[in-house]
Design goal:
The chain is globular and about 50 Å long. It has a two-stranded antiparallel sheet. The protein has twelve helices and two strands, in the order H-H-E-H-H-H-H-H-H-H-H-H-E-H. With 302 residues, the protein is mainly alpha-helical. Helix content is 71%, strand content 2%. The chain has one domain. Keywords: Cell membrane, Membrane, Transmembrane, Transmembrane helix, Transport. It is a multi-pass membrane protein. It is found in: Cell membrane.
Amino acid sequence: MKQSLKNLSLGIQHVLAMYAGAVVVPLIVGSAIGLSGSQLTYLVAIDIFMCGIATFLQVWKNRFFGIGLPVVLGCTFTAVGPMIAIGNEYGVSAVYGAIIASGIIVILISTIFGKLVRFFPPVVTGSVVTTIGVTLIPVAMNNMAGGQGSPEFGSVENVALAFGVLFVIILLNRFFTGFIRAISILIGIILGTVVAGFMGMVNLQPVSDASWFNIGQPFYFGTPTFELAPILTMTIVAIVSMVESTGVYFALSDICNKKINEKDLARGYRSEGLAYLLGGIFNAFPYTAFSQNVGLVQMSGI
């Protein structure tokens, strides 16, 4: 029971690490293509659900898919611009037709793409991992200021709260060991949320108004349509995401002291292709490895 509670806490920590990024994408895309409030709510809910399914496909290693590393999958920011452009020109049905088609293509090319591992020496993968960390800095600074579109963006309260949470996490990592150190980010988030509540920055009304259960519906936005230009666009997005994921795979491989080969990479790419395919069927998003969770694994060891 005690071990189960520890595992639950560590799992919640990973969810919270990816939550902001997973929610922002559907909000941006849904608003840009003119979805209604109820449609936007569904989009966010099904996206979170599919993030869990996609992650499960990746960590469940078997003969056909799953890299077997602590990889968390979430909707890729690379797809935001293309999805908005496709949605505005061809309609939302073409968006999901393109995602489904690109997912099938990723599954088909996964073995070939996995063989490219021989062209990724340590100096290349190390550069990719460094780039991942550097590109996350603007995202972190934006969130610390209050998040894109916040009316209080850059306020003293937002910045002070953000640095307070950061200070707590650093202290826990510096002076504690074991389980407390492993969940330092979770503790920082909880304390920060409590303080934010006292500051009037937390609104729980939408949570109380929401229903307890909601079942995902395939093709919620209608039957997908397949247009050549959108399919090519989303396939390019998928290939870019595969390159990004390669860096994440190698980073986690080093952290976990588990060497990966071309077959492992192929299974990892195949999982992403399946996640694309399911994302299109359930009208969610293309999914890729979330780099922010790599930092969490490095800090917590889990």
